[in-house]
Amino acid sequence: MNGVAAVLLLVAVMAAPFASAASGDEGADQPPERLLILPFDMVDSSLQGEMNHGPLDADVARLRRTADILRRSLGDRDEFELVDPDSISEKIKEAASSYRYLYECNGCQIDLGKAADADLVMTGWVQKVSNLILNINATLYDVETGESVGGGSVDMRSNTDKSWRASGLYLVEHALLENYHSRQRARAAAETTATSQTGEQTDAR
Is there a domain that residue 203 lies in? Predict the structure, then answer.
């Protein structure tokens, strides 16, 4: 195990008890959010990709396997209810044929979320610069407002199945969800403050 992998593993192990506690507290009294996860994109700017005129088959296969792992991980959480993307498969195909990447499709992800009757929609992509420089990314959008409500990015330092899996799980179980829940808490605090101020103004009258 190299130094970076060891550090990531140590961080994940140390964070596990706290993550478990947080997952039990976050949204405990709230119904699960209906989450649509769109197909992940492969953004390959590597020399290999240029010579191959697109991502390598092995990388595309890793992308699909990793996306499936992330779906299962998010599906196991109490705060989400996954929406079956097959229910709008034709609309997803149309969007994929109209835009190069679904993670930047001029708001089409929101339209797809509405079509699937989802509360949240997630886009994801892996960017490959070389076999030693890759990153996996995800963004959560509120379907009603169209705003980004969570995001995360994790670097990978090797192009292997093990690295993709570990980085992908760290993305959704830590980086993405911690950012999402942090934003939720900030929004709830702001709403509470606004309500309190409104009440004080009413009492003053």
Answer: no
